[in-house]
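Progress note, sequence design subtask.
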């Protein structure tokens, strides 16, 4: 746990010192919500918010390992962080706290802007709190695979978007059902299962992908 909190604290401090990188995905989410609020119908609001949250995550996750790779910190992390699992989890937890969590916090405002109602807002926030960590974990695999190539961006998006689709489907479906007053238990359980699977497998996949990327 000490390694987890050390890495978590370090990444938070680094992100605070370079505020523009952390703010870009959040700024995208806010600006896109404002613009879509002018033209999107209320019935599309949950799906719109989830799609925007997904793309904000894609923008953010592309650089999760880039800075550390540029300054050599990533190589030192792979050498000295044993076991690697808590260090990777600390890094991804910090990344989610700066990208996914703010989106979840701002989502009620976005929902009210798009629908003019607070119906289903609680479920929307809950789905984002469950779903965005899964997006971060899955997206980190693509970021780790491409970090040494210097070809992030679109390549990361192409790699991770297929894995994002189930999270998007269940998250948007639960939010829409809550807005309409329908049951949401199945969708929430499915989202929780996806998060549990991501927590179990993704850090190991990220560690292996980082090791492979550093070899080449």
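Output:
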């Amino acid at each position: 746990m000490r390694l987890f909190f050390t890495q978590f604290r370090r990444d938070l401090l680094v992100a605070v010192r370079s505020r523009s990188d952390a703010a870009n995905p959040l700024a995208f989410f806010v600006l896109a919500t404002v613009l879509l609020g002018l033209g999107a119908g209320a019935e599309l609001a949950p799906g719109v918010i989830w799609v925007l949250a997904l793309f904000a995550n894609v923008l953010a996750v592309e650089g999760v390992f880039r800075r550390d790779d540029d300054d050599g910190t990533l190589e030192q992390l792979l050498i000295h962080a044993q076991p690697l699992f808590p260090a990777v989890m600390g890094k991804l937890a910090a990344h989610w706290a700066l990208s996914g969590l703010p989106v979840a916090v701002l989502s009620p405002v976005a929902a009210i802007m798009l629908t003019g109602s607070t119906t289903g807002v609680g479920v929307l926030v809950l789905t984002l709190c469950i779903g965005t960590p899964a997006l971060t974990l899955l997206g980190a695999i693509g970021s780790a695979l491409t970090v040494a190539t210097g070809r992030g961006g679109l390549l990361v998006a192409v790699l991770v978007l297929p894995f994002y689709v189930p999270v998007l489907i269940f998250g948007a479906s639960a939010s829409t059902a809550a807005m309409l007053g329908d049951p949401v238990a199945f969708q929430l359980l499915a989202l929780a299962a996806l998060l549990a699977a991501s927590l179990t497998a993704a850090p190991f996949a990220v560690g292996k992908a980082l090791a492979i990327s550093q070899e080449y």
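Residues 2-209 form one domain. Work on this subtask will continue into the next period as scheduled.
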